[in-house]
Amino acid sequence: MQMNQTNYFNELERDVLSAMKKPNMSYWAALGFSASLLLMWALCWGYQIKEGLYVTGINNPVGWGIYLTNFVFWVGIAHSGTLISAVLYLFRAKFRNSFNRTAEAMTIIAIMVAGLFPIIHLGRMWKFYWLLPYPNQRLLWVNFRSPLVWDVFAVSTYFIVSLVFFYVGLVPDLAIVKRHVKGIRQRVYSILSLGWTGSLRQWVHYNKLYMFLAAFATPLVISVHSVVSWDFAMSITPGWHTTIFAPYFVAGAIFSGTAMVLTLVIPMRKILSLEKYITVDKFEGIAKVLLFTSLIVTYAYIVEFGIASYSDNIYELSIFKYRMVGDYRVIYWIMICCNSLIPMTLFVKKLRRNLVYLFILSIFVNIGMWSERFNIIISSLSHEYMPYAWGLYRPSFIEIGIFVGSFGMFFTFFLIFLKLLPVLAMSEIKEEAE
Amino acid sequence: MKTFSLNYIMLIAAMIIVAAVIFGLEQFVTPEQHGSLLLTLVFWVALVQGCIALVAAAELSNAKWILPLKKYLFSVYPLMLLITALFVIVGAQIDMYPWMNGHQDAWLNQPFFIIRSVVMLLLSFVFAHLFVRASLREQKNKNRFAALYVLMFVITQSLVAFDWVMSLEHPWISTLFGGYFFIEATYMAIGVSTFFCYFLLRSEGGKDNSAYQKTLRDTSTLLFGFSLFWAGMFFAQYLTIWYGNLPEEVIYIYERVSTQPFKSISAVVLLCLFFFPFTVLLSRKVKLIAPIMMFISLVIMAGVMLERYLFIAPVTSTVTIEFGMVGIEFALLLVMFVFAVMSRERTLKQPS
What we know:
heterodimer; A: mainly alpha; 16 helices; about 0% strand; B: about 350 residues; mainly alpha; about 75% helix
């Protein structure tokens, strides 16, 4: 028994660490492709900085185009990291440990990508630090009543806590990596592992810290996307100003983030031959989370429309009808199909356990969730109170370039992560096996 | 000592008697005093449905801590029948809803209002029954019934929120009201679970009760989590209305924080549902002391009752709540609740 376990542990270390070995051609090809998209992103943004915001499609009344759509989308993607690491940890859901490392890395990268979008949306982006409150000569302070300032606090707090959580989770694994590499890399991993030896005393402290961080991070999962939702709900724009927005956005964020975890982990498992550790059972757990959050989002869609019909508010009802049959109806129906109808198929156990199906579904969900944000932002702005002020929006090539390029940035960083850090939480998988 | 218990038929007979008594009592109430039965029902429907929903959610997520509490929580499901019967009495008092005077439309009209609630209450009873049976027999399809029950729970609680309570202030709206109600129902069910933990611990006496201690700890932790979750829901709703400051929306809050006694009650509700449980439950030791946990749960339930009073009472000058009546009706339902729990061994054995 003891012998078997030692063999299993050795095998686990070998399999996980072999992913960090010298990259092969397909890796370089993927990295090259992602990096070229990243380059496109940089060129588009550079051009926009040089020329000014007129190169975008944003106009009056649609002052928030797909830049803000992307911001909400990427913050949403960043959500499942802490959900899987912290919330599922507190609930002692074992299936989390096949995904938590990837999800946490994804969170960190997605917040960085998301954080750039409000800056990209600024006319004079070099003044972005004006968003931070700091003592200055003219005694000017940021407008604390603006939800955009709340965003600065919420997103940066989330980023810091997620980073700490990610790093703390990595420490025991970094010590394992240290044992397996040589030369300068060993020194680097040695410093990063903070002298971890794996003694009982260290583990006792470590577990306490991890539990504390998990408890601390859980309310953050709720707060961040609540604040993002308030960017909209605090205004009195029809279709935005509604009380359900905060929980609805949180559920939507977890929904899209979980889908992105599937999009990343299913190919990764295949390419890095990790089938033994990321079992189909564990995917089923994630698929259930996906189904659950899809149902919450669907509930919100129904309630929003139902209450708009129930009330005597003609503006609310008008905007919901406009979404369904107006200029952006295609986006609306894509959203309904991808977020509500197609995920219902996950009630079928066979489909929950079919990885090819889950992979395709996860892409649909991501398309659906992007469409949802587009639908909320653009349709409400283009069709507010006065018909005289209505107007349409169409993204320019620069905006589309920056949007597509943001995926390049995300995947470039993710591919680099695969080679620098262990992709599975080895110590946790060992703990489960014991 | 032989404890008192009823079988299924006797329980139903007792429910019929209670329904008849309440029906009789309600005949003495003037139309100006309607509202006491509604208040009693919006509390108990949440508690009873929440108990089953808690088990269903736990079963769906393969939670083990619920196992010792399962029978206790399940035992209350027949009360849904009593609640359905009592709702029909409320249906006869529908004049207290302002939309009855000329604002009736496709959704808000007397027959549909009553029918949809009755149908949903009965359906949730049926699915609760199927789920309880499947779960106790450890049938393979128990998760299917659990999911169906949760669906019914969500729809019914949303109806309770939007129809029974929100439409009292028609055309005031809040889209979160439904979600707020079913979260609160679950919050209360977790509170009730601490009582059951206490009874379990006591029944075991000096024996090894570490398994029950663990259940108590998990229940308490969940209660702590829900106190924070409740605050999040409350704040999401309050902030949106306050910040928007639209006259037609903010009036709901204004009515409840500007005049006495509602002003003080609002503060007490916040204290009972968030500040008190959250602060006390920060301590790890407290989570293992059953009597203290019971006290906290009592405070939470009192908070929910007061909050629902706050929702219903200030509506119009014609709806005032008769405290004596609320007391009697509440006590009758409490007695039935206790009967149902005490009779669990007999009623759950033969739910055919």
